[in-house]
Amino acid sequence: MFTYDHFNFNVLDLERSLKFYKDALDLVPVREKAAKDGSFKLVYLGDGKTGFTLELTWLKDRTEPYDLGECEFHLALTAEDMGAAHARHQAMGCICFENPAMGIYFIEDPDGYWIEIVPARK
Fold this sequence. Notes:
- The model has no long low-confidence stretch (mean pLDDT 93).
- The chain has helices at residues 14-25, 82-92, and strands at 6-11, 28-34, 40-46, 53-59, 75-79, 95-99, 104-108, 114-119.
- The longest helix is centred in the N-terminal third of the chain and has 12 residues, at 14-25.
- It has a single domain (6-60, 73-119), classed as 2,3-Dihydroxybiphenyl 1,2-Dioxygenase, domain 1, CATH 3.10.180.10.
- The radius of gyration is 15 Å and the shape is globular.
- A hairpin with a 6-residue loop joins strand 3 (40-46) and strand 4 (53-59).
- The chain starts with 5 loop residues before the first strand and ends with a strand.
- By secondary structure, the protein is α/β, with parallel strands linked by helices.
- The relative contact order is 0.22.
- It has a four-stranded mixed sheet with strand order 1-4-3-2. Strands 5-8-7-6 form a four-stranded mixed sheet, covered by helices on one side.
C-alpha cells in the first residue's frame, strides 16, 4: 500500500551540501523545486539505482544552524566496497563515529546530519 519516496534534510548552504553529497556519496540532483518568490529551494538527490531520494531544503531567510537534538536519527546508505568508502570518507575528514565490531561507521554532513554507511547485503 505504501512505498518509500524521499527523506528530508534542511540545509544552510545548499551549494556546500550539494558538493558534499556528490563527493561523499555520489548523490546527484534528480529534480528541483523553487519558490517563485525565492524564499526556498528543494533539491532531490538520487543514487541512480533506486527511486528513493534525499530532499535538501534550503530556506532563504534561515541563518542559524538547525537544532538536531541528540542526532538519534540517521539516514543509512550501503557501500559495495566498504574499504574504498571508508578511505574516501577518511580523506574527506567526515567520519564521526565508527563501530568496527558491527562493520559500520557514520559520516557527518556540513549541517551535522549523520549518515550511516553499511556493507551491501550479499
